[in-house]
Amino acid sequence: MPDAHKKHIVVVDDDSEIRDLLSEYLGVQNFRVSVAADAVELDRILASGIPDLIVLDIMLPGEDGFSICRRLVTQAQIPILMLTANSDDTDRIIGLELGADDYMEKPFNPRVLLARIRAILRRADPETAPLVAPQGKHTALGDWTLDHQSRVLLSKTGQRWNISGSDFNLLMILIENRNRVVSRETLYHSIKGREPSPYDRSLDVQISRIRQRLGDDGKNPRLIKTIRGVGYVLAEQLEAR
């Protein structure tokens, strides 16, 4: 019988050596691990319950990792760490735009992967996330309302959007500091749990994704404004209730 106290990690990779390596390594680190070689096997696992995190390879037989990520982020709030064998930034940017929480390039150091997983899980867990919600249970963001408890964006037309732990934390930091500039370094450390590398664009991609969801014009944003060379600011007067 599965240990309910252990975090459940699903590793999706068509390379059996990687599946076996991560299954053994993460198991020793006190995680409950399930493995899948493709989308079909992943869906069988998901039918039995929602895991705490998915490690998802991009290059898979049948449905690829991008397609899987796209459909999962619209169905459930499952943190996703994507694996890519491509050293080019393209795969990473696409994955982040689709809603992945982080990415790693193959080959990877299992210790680094473990650190990334733990950081994502801390940010996704309401009890350990380093954020305090502003007064009230909802915040109006343009035509959308953020429900703090369910982590769902609700539109005036009745649309619902489950927001990932990483995106939720980013929005909450900006809401807590509304009308004040938050530096890129502060945001990156809070959201990614590590220092930014010189050419890492993941924060910019994440901001762009949130703007798109909120209907905020990236070229002339009304809500999340870019302060060049400094960081970002949530500039609209918000209503918490």
Blueprint (SSEs and pairs):
Layout: E1 8-12, H1 16-28, E2 32-36, H2 39-46, E3 53-57, H3 65-75, E4 80-84, H4 89-98, E5 102-105, H5 110-124, E6 138-141, E7 144-147, E8 152-155, E9 160-162, H6 165-176, E10 182-183, H7 184-192, H8 202-214, E11 224-227, E12 231-234, E13 239-240
Parallel strand pairs: 1-2, 1-3, 3-4, 4-5
Antiparallel strand pairs: 6-7, 6-13, 7-8, 8-9, 10-12, 11-12
Helix pairs in contact: 4-8, 6-7
DSSP summary: helix tally: 8
Distance between the termini: 43 Å
Mean pLDDT: 85
The CATH superfamily of the largest domain turns out to be: Response regulator
The description of the largest β-sheet is: 5 strands, parallel
Q: Can you name the CATH architecture of the largest domain?
A: 3-Layer(aba) Sandwich
Structural class: alpha/beta
Tell me the quaternary state. Answer: single chain
Number of strands: 13
Estimated radius of gyration: 18 Å
* Secondary-structure element pattern, one letter each: EHEHEHEHEHEEEEHEHHEEE
For the record, the count of structural domains works out to 2
- State the name of the first-level CATH class of the largest domain: Alpha Beta
Beta fraction of the residues?
15-25%
- Overall 3D form: globular
* CATH overall fold name of the largest domain: Rossmann fold
InterPro entries: CheY-like_superfamily, OmpR/PhoB-type_DNA-bd, Sig_transdc_resp-reg_C-effctor, Sig_transdc_resp-reg_receiver, WalR-like, WH-like_DNA-bd_sf
DNA-binding region: 136-236
Pfam families: Response_reg, Trans_reg_C
Domain OmpR/PhoB-type: 136-236
